[in-house]
Amino acid sequence: MKSLATHSIRITMAHVDAAGLIFFPRLYDLCESALEVFFEAIFAKNFHTVIFQQKQATIIVHSEADYKKPIRLGDHIKVVVACTHVGTTSFTIHYKMYNTKEVFVAEAKTVHVLIDLVTFEKVKISDEWRSKILADS
Hints:
Helices cover about 25% and strands about 35% of the residues. Strands 1-3-4-5-2 form a five-stranded antiparallel beta sheet. By secondary structure, the protein is an alpha+beta fold. It has three helices and five strands; from the N terminus they run βααββββα. The longest helix is centred in the N-terminal third of the chain and has 20 residues, at about 25-45.
């Protein structure tokens, strides 16, 4: 998996449970933050601008995550993002997370479908999107 974007995040009180470990849905917050960085890098503009200009959005239709090592309050986590598949109307993003010692601590995968923001119907991924999200993968 070739990295297309990386994003570093410090784990705060908002990310953890009473034991001081990452609360499971907060891992997806890390993924979403990294995904926005990924899209901003490939489109060279704020992703929200891209969505509103094209009147298209991505929705998640599948997600999964594996927690390999504890992620604790105060940890600095690097999220490595890559697109691993592009279909006709969907694409798959893979996230790998590492702590400051470069220990692999978690991974996640999300499958996104591109939809029209007016009709909410699936739309074909354009050649422009395809080339940008697959660049270097």
